[in-house]
Amino acid sequence: MSLPLPTAQTGPSRPALTRLWSYLADVTRALGIGLESCTVDHDTPVSAYVALDGHLPAYPDRDVALLWDEIHGWAAAIETHSGEDLIVIRYLGGPSVAPPAPRVAEFAAAVRDDDHRIGCLAPPEIRTLGTRADLDAVLRDYA
């Protein structure tokens, strides 16, 4: 199930999702965009989509987004013309799936600038899929 903004469904009985929305609020603030640019998929693994403004020079006719999931962390992706899955062009990587918001903004800027010093091409397995309580602990560490 994908929700555009936090609702009662992300309340006290779902603390990991509440923390994720809080984290996404920090990330979108660092990116200079609004939380309305996000959707969260509550299925396992939990994931998020953040629409970015503008296009990448290498893909001038394709929309760009940041993707997040609880296993790989952040990735930059471009939309396809056919409505198929997005094409991931780079992963942030690092020790946590929830790096500080300024680091995510730095990654987004590097992708826009085609700066390959930040990120990697292969999907990093930062953590294995766990329970919602495990995800809550990861996101609590961020806060």
Task: Give a summary of the structure in a few sentences.
By secondary structure, the protein is α+β, with helices and mostly antiparallel strands.
Summary keywords:
6 strands, alpha+beta, 28% helix, 143 residues
Write up what this structure looks like:
With 143 residues, the protein is α+β, with helices and mostly antiparallel strands. The protein has 3 helices and 6 strands. The chain has helices at residues 15-31, 101-112, 132-142, and strands at residues 2-3, 38-41, 47-51, 64-69, 73-78, 87-91. It has a 6-stranded antiparallel beta sheet with strand order 1-2-3-4-5-6, with helices on one face. The protein is globular. Mean pLDDT is 88; it is low at 1-13.
Radius of gyration: 14 Å
Overall pLDDT score: 88
What is the count of helical runs? 3
Query: What fraction of the residues are assigned to beta strands by DSSP?
Result: 15-25%
Furnish the topology, listing elements before pairings.
Layout: E1 2-3, H1 15-31, E2 38-41, E3 47-51, E4 64-69, E5 73-78, E6 87-91, H2 101-112, H3 132-142
Antiparallel strand pairs: 1-2, 2-3, 3-4, 4-5, 5-6
Helix pairs in contact: 1-2, 1-3
